[in-house]
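Study this fold:
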Amino acid sequence: VVEIRADPSAVGVLAGAAKVVADKGVSIRQAVAEDPDLFPEPKLVLVLDKPLPGEAITELTRVPSVESVTTY
């Protein structure tokens, strides 16, 4: 599971994160993007079929508007 916090008004965060994950050969089983009108600190949660390699986490932090990335 990867939790991504980003500017909720930014365009392309989900697309950028999905590209990083796909480029590493990992499948996204589920993606949940919290609505900023309902959650004061919305996040994007990606449930993956296997853990991401360490360099992918660094790449996720480089997606425009991403503020933090946490893995579980």
